[in-house]
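Rather than argue in generalities, we reproduce a single protein record, letters for residues, whole numbers for local backbone shapes, just as it appears below:
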Amino acid sequence: MGFCRRVRTFSMHHEWVGNLFSLLAVVLLFATIWVSLQYYREIGSWISARPLVNAMLLGLGLIVEGLLFLGLLALGSARPGDEDERCFATFPGRRNGPSPLDPFRHWLRHIENVGKKHR
């Protein structure tokens, strides 16, 4: 049994794991909003103490938090495909994209197909 088949089998039998990651992403989003509203004065005074360094640290923290949020959403939205669907296929924009707009068109077509599968 190949790796892809094992991943599909696991995701079919344990769909709650994907739901948990989606829930964690939502909790992270609302926790970030709550912390920023609850402690905005402390954050402001912390930034004003050393504006350059602390603003950069805050920006870095927000970037890391945003990447974590997107990663949790990606893990939560991963659902098993059909049996005949290929595993780990390459993104078509990287194989044949002589025009600068071709990767965008392939990406857009891919997103539309993903949307159709999850309806």
